[in-house]
């Protein structure tokens, strides 16, 4: 039997595993590394050196279709402005890594990876998130039928790339501050049967990051929408049973259409 002290150490080492899902732990922009925001620490003050928006989402829990019209869908539960916006050059990638104290994004949580951008029209540290008008700049959903009964999804590509996703910031984007809303959607329990959807269903994992776009681009975001209009929660693509059939090549990525101004690197699965 192990001494008590090592049992306690063992338990405390395992404790983060109770926080199931991982989070955006690392961000690279213009090749500079920044840490994400970790809601699992009981912070007395916000850190000033992360572009990740703060959340109160201890445990990294999902949002559900019932949250789709609520403020928390915008920048996660308890989302509030990051203090800094980090420099990034249009046409380059911002890289985000989902990780958390040895916990990777769970393989069971198959689904799309979607990225949105909204202009802050001033410092993102001060913007009211309810005024943000987002366009979808990239999306990826079902990739192919191979590898698993549920098929291979964007989240599986993320896992294969060290838990990371590269988000191309549209070339020619006008200089200024922007909120990147990076989102994973997990579909493993999306199927809720017939009738009204319940608190279960597709799982939404958004994370906002504040960016300061440089350069001399002229493309301004037009046609953006409030994040609370992205999803009804009742879309077939948020209610499908990914375990039931093998081929999901007709999967339609939810949310608005891609912004015409985005030249996305990783786009479209087999959308009609
Ligand atoms: C965080 O710390 C405060 C002050 O000690 C305490 O009142 C609060 O319950 C703690 N919250 C969590 C989530 O641990
Ligand atoms: C970060 O921003 C919050 C909210 O605006 C503010 O209360 C806090 O003082 C800031 N923290 C630092 C370290 O600048
Ligand atoms: C994954 O990313 C982490 C964090 O940057 C890094 O330490 C690690 O070496 C990477 N692993 C691989 C296989 O690239
Ligand atoms: Cu889960």
From TrEMBL:
Gene3D superfamilies xrefs: 2.70.50.70
Signal peptide from the UniProt entry: 1-20
Keywords for the protein's UniProt record, in alphabetical order: Disulfide bond, Monooxygenase, Oxidoreductase, Secreted, Signal
GO CC field: extracellular region
Residues annotated as domain Auxiliary Activity family 9 catalytic: 21-245
Cofactor(s) this protein requires: Cu(2+)
InterPro entries listed in its UniProt record: AA9 (IPR049892), AA9_LPMO (IPR005103)
GO molecular function: monooxygenase activity
Places the protein is found: Secreted
CDD domains: LPMO_AA9
Entry protein name: Lytic polysaccharide monooxygenase
Organism name: Lentithecium fluviatile CBS 122367
Taxonomic path: Eukaryota, Fungi, Dikarya, Ascomycota, Pezizomycotina
């Amino acid at each position: 039997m192990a001494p008590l002290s090592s049992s306690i150490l063992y338990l405390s080492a395992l404790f983060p595993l109770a926080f199931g899902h991982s989070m955006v732990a690392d961000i690279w922009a213009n090749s500079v590394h920044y840490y994400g925001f970790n809601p699992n620490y009981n912070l007395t003050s916000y850190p000033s050196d992360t572009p990740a928006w703060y959340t109160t989402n201890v445990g990294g829990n999902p949002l559900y279709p019932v949250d789709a019209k609520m403020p928390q869908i915008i920048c996660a539960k308890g989302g509030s402005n990051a203090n800094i916006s980090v420099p990034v050059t249009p046409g380059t990638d911002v890289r985000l890594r989902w990780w958390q104290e040895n916990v990777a994004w769970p393989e069971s949580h198959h689904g799309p990876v979607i990225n949105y951008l909204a202009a802050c029209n001033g410092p993102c540290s001060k913007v009211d998130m309810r005024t943000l008008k987002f366009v979808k700049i990239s999306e990826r959903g079902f990739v192919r039928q191979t590898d698993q009964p549920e098929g291979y999804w964007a989240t599986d590509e993320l896992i294969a790339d060290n838990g990371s996703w590269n988000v191309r910031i549209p070339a020619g984007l006008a200089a200024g501050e922007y909120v990147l809303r990076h989102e994973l959607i997990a579909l493993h329990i999306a199927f809720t049967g017939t009738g009204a959807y319940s608190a279960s269903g597709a799982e939404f994992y958004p994370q906002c990051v504040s960016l300061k776009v440089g350069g001399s681009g002229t493309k301004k975001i037009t046609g953006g929408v409030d994040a609370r209009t992205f999803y009804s929660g009742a879309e077939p693509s948020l209610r499908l049973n990914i375990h039931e059939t093998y081929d999901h090549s007709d999967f339609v990525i939810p949310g608005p259409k891609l912004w015409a101004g985005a030249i996305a690197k990783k786009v479209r699965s087999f959308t009609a």
